[in-house]
What we know:
single chain
Amino acid sequence: MTRRNKRRMDSRRRHRKLLWIFFGASIVSALLYWEQAALLYVISTLAICGLMLIVAFANLEKKDKELHQSTDDRPREKRDSDEREPLESKAA
Length: 92
């Protein structure tokens, strides 16, 4: 993936994230304005339950193993040079 494509994807993600934040804040503000606290409690409870389900079913151990395996798959010389680079750049 080229740098330009990566920057474009990062920009899209950032805009999407900001859109979700704005959308959520406007919903909460509207519910508070029209004094719908009960509905706000129900929505927030469902959102927290959904978040807890996502975390519960996320296979974080598998992701951690994949991360370590991808690091270990690189040749030994490449790993050694990557480990030395930060020290050289700090000294410069």
